[in-house]
Amino acid sequence: MARAVRLSIDGMHCAGCVSKVETALISVPGVTNAVVNLAERSAMVEGDAEVSALIEAVRATGRDADEIKSDADEIKKEAAEMAHYRRLLMQAAAAALVGLPMFVAGMLDILPSLDSATGQIIWLALGIITLGVMLFSGRQFYVGAFKGLIHHSATMDTLIAMGTGTAWLYSMAISIWPDAVPEVGRHVYFEAALIIIALINLGQALEMRARGRTSEAIKRLIGLQAKTARVLRDGEEIDIPIKQVGLGETVRVRPGEKIPVDGVLLEGHSNVDESMLTGEPMPVAKQAGDEVVGGAINAAGTFLYKATRIGADTVLARIISMVHQAQSSKPKIGRLVDKVAGVFVPAVLIIAVLTFLVWFNFGPEPRISFALVTMMTVLIIACPCALGLATPMSIMVGVGKAAEYGILIRNGEALECAGKLSTIVLDKTGTLTLGKPQVTDVIAFEGSEDEILRLAASLEAGSEHPLAAAVLAAANEKGLQLASVEKFEAHAGRGIRGVVEDQSLFLGNAKLMQEQGIALNANVETRLGKLAESARTPILLAAGERLLGIVAVADPIREDSREAVSRLHGLGMKVVMLTGDNRHTANAVANKLGVDDVLAEVMPADKHAKVTELQAHGEIVGMVGDGINDAAALAQADVGFAIGAGTDVAMESADVTLMRSSPMGVASAIEISRATMGNIRQNLFGAFIYNTLGIPVAAGILYPVFALLLNPIIAGAAMAMSSVTVVSNANRLRLLKLGGRR
Amino acid sequence: MTLLVNLLGLALIAVIIWWFWLSESRAAKVVGRTSLTVLVNGGVYAPDRIEVATGQPVQLTFVRKDASPCAAQVVFTDLNLSFDLTTDKATEVNLPALNPGEYPFTCQMGMYRGLIKVT
Q1: ipTM of the modeled complex
Q2: Cross-chain residue pair B20–A353, CB shorter than 8 Å
Q3: Which positions in chain B touch A140 (Cβ < 8 Å)?
Q4: What is the per-residue pLDDT for A646?
Q5: How confident is the model at residue A379 (pLDDT cuts 50, 70, 90)?
Q6: Above 60 in pLDDT, residue B55?
Q7: Which band of pLDDT confidence, cut at 50, 70 and 90, is reported for residue A41?
């Protein structure tokens, strides 16, 4: 999709330069338009060309260029927020400075009465001063209310403007025509209008501060990005801004430095701290050929690596983008609240008018005063903000908290659903186990163990089966010389055969042996049983009709799998293990882990059907897999968890991506989900109760029985604090402690 | 006097219902062009109703003039999209071709409200 890029151009002096730069930019493939501004020394380029290509094109003309982008925006944004925060505080102070002395003087009864002409003049003067301060301190409310009105929209500004406006108008009317109301009702509300404005401004400033803290997680992620990179160009190492690093460039990283972009290590080795990205607390050893990700910290050692992903394609950039989008998304409950918020303010306006009419018709004298004060209090106490803030603030903190643990939650709905899961289906290979099978036993019935391994590995050299890699690795580790294979044949689901050194060999499971008429005696059966009991997969090797030996392979269980299963049980989950392994091996692993049920011998294509089957039995299913082989099952599950350091497919398709390759993340995600949804419910309950109790009390429902009326100033304070309370409650989620280790 | 006040009160309620719930502001039509500037100021989006033809991608340029934190983000809930808006800066929002229907866009709290109507 076409986009616009702004570049700063250095080294431009005349119209001739403009033309050259424009021509260079337009000639870059993908550029649809380029306009150079000589006065600003900048260029606006439209199209879908890479920024680095644009910069190179400008450099080719003998000038330098750089993208004008995010850093400046971020600084500008923070500066604007700080200025707004200060302005709110100043507006609050100005209103309080005039309103509070008037309030205290009123309490001490030292202000003149409206009965005398002098008193009237003083009150009128105070009214005009009040108006000036109201316009200074509350201008945004009146402008917002007016603009909303002409757009058929009623917001919190409407309520504040109408509430304080009514107070001022009524007070001015009393000051001009005191005889219009009975003496007992001659009370002016200038101080109330000012103190309400002061409190609301103060509340908004506090809310702004608290809201800033809700986005700390994403700020931390943005802060992980390195500013510069040391690249090798023409045999020299030069420091350049990270934005100028090109694909395929060689980058040097020194000890303690941040890795600037993603890439593959070429030379050197090191331990890399990826904890901020994946939640993995231990530094990860890296050597030539290993992938490194931008934002991670090089703990020790210097290395060179080749940049393979830059800009918006890096893992970190995609994490930031995903977290950002997820933080703004809403669960179903939030969408419902949006609908309520949409009709809330007009409904309050109607309630305010009805309150006025009820007091005016049925209230005690002075009816007009009671009617106006209660109407004003209803307008002031109602707080649509608390309602509107309840969901997004909690989602923002919850999704951010998850990101801190290396858990990327796609959207609000996934977050909501994760807390409701009843069954977790864990794919065995790569999720509960390391996904890297290793040879554990070699049993020789004829010849030496090394000979058995050598023949098995020679046969496996032509196989693509996952277990083949383990056999080959073991042979390689022992330095065994493999022989060539002839007449290789694969028997799907059973094993392989081939001719090695003139011997016809079979390598596979017991079924293959039986098919070839190879008898398995009691001793072999016992051995096979023992291997299966200890979750090892036996591969039998036979020459002709003679059984030569057994090579046993096992995929080691992750060290934290058992603890993860136990945590899931603690959360009330039924834990099901899914695997293509035979039932004996699967049961052995299941027993070690303590899972509730095992679905063994499931072909990859059937995983999706198994999830559907569980759902048909009323289970709300979370499926945990690697995101590639399990894509269909992950999509079918109510929540799909992709495990394994954010592979491309996983990040794009899964509801939840676990950056750290550990099933512990599933339990953590569920705990965060439950805590966040609980927090949202608290917020919504608080906001709902506040409004449903506050509005009737403000309308004077307690007056007939208790002769109690709410002071509009108290209403203003309550309104200002309700939003702050919601945001502060959401911030409590930042302190959430999870059940297990990170 | 009492009757007059009551009638005025009831009339005011009728006006509130009609103005805020039953009538709508005029929609800006994005027909024959692919972009439109939306000003974010004083608690509202202007225009707040945008009509777009089915299957037509559209670029909305949001210009935030409102310093309130409420204006800091525009969220298209049904499209699962959100964008940060920086004060006094244009933010381009590229929307794909949409199916017929109504797609609201709001601030994070749902107080600033706008609607894209695809016909």
Answers
A1: 0.79
A2: no
A3: 42, 68
A4: 46
A5: very high
A6: yes
A7: low
* Gap between the Cα atoms of A708 and A45, Å rounded: 66
pLDDT band at A513 (very low <50, low <70, confident <90, very high): confident
**Distance, C-alpha A350 to centroid of its chain:** 39
Token pair, residue A62, equals 């003998």
CB contact (8 A) between residue A329 and residue B2: no
**Residue A554 tokens, joined:** 């096992």
Helix (H, G, I), strand (E, B) or coil at B48: coil
Per 3-state DSSP, chain A is made up of helix, strand and coil in percentages (nearest 5) of 55, 20, 25
Instruction: List Cβ neighbours of A90 (8 Å cut-off, separation of 6 or more).
Output: none
DSSP A106-159: HHHT-SPPTTSHHHHHHHHHHHHHHHHHHHHHSHHHHHHHHHHHHTT---HHHH
Bond into A663 cis (ω within 30):
no
Task: Give one word for A618, left, alpha or beta, with left for phi > 0 and alpha for psi -120 to 50.
Answer: left
The number of helices, as runs of H, and strands, as runs of E, in chain B is 1, 10
d(CA B28, CA B31): 9
The pLDDT > 70 percentage for chain B reads: 92
The closest of A324, A319, A332 to A415, measured between CA atoms, is A332
For residue range A314-329, list pLDDT tens digits in order: 888 888 888 877 877 7
What sign does the dihedral A43-A49-A54-A57 (CA atoms) show? Answer: negative
Size of interface A-B (CB pairs under 8 A): 134
Query: How far apart (Å, rounded) are the C-alpha atoms in residues A389 and A729?
Result: 11
Residue A651: predicted pLDDT: 62
Furthest-apart CA atoms within chain B: distance in Å: 58
Residue B4 has pLDDT above 90, yes or no: yes
Interchain contact, A147 vs B68, CB within 8 Å: no
Name every chain B residue with its beta carbon within 8 A of the beta carbon of A349.
Answer: 16, 20
DSSP state letter for A235: T
Domain boundaries along the sequence of chain B = 25-118
pTM of the shown model: 0.76
**B81 to chain A: which residues are within 8 Å by CB?**
325
Q: Which residues of A touch B80 (CB under 8 A)?
A: 325, 329, 411
Q: HSE-up of B12 (CA within 13 Å, CB side)?
A: 18
CB A499 within 8 A of CB A486: yes
CATH superfamily to which B25-118 belongs: Cupredoxins -  blue copper proteins (2.60.40.420)
Residue B30 in this model has a pLDDT that exceeds 50: yes
Tokens of A716: 């203003």
State which H helix or E strand residue B3 sits in.
Answer: helix B2-16
For residue B52, give how far its alpha carbon lies from the nearest alpha carbon of chain A (Å).
Answer: 19
Tell me if B43 and A157 make a contact (CB, 8 A cut-off): yes
Give the three-state DSSP class for A453.
Answer: helix
Q: Which candidate in A157, A262, A273, A427 is catalytic?
A: A427
> Among positive and negative, which fits the CA dihedral A97, A99, A103, A106?
positive
Residue A10 bears catalytic tag: no
- Average pLDDT (B72-91) is 84
CA A663 to chain centre: 19
Query: Nearest chain B Cα to A206, which residue?
Result: B69
Reduced to 3 states (helix: H, G, I; strand: E, B; else coil), residue A503 is: strand
Task: Return the amino acid letter for A209.
Answer: R
**Residue A547 is encoded by which pair of tokens?**
């059984």
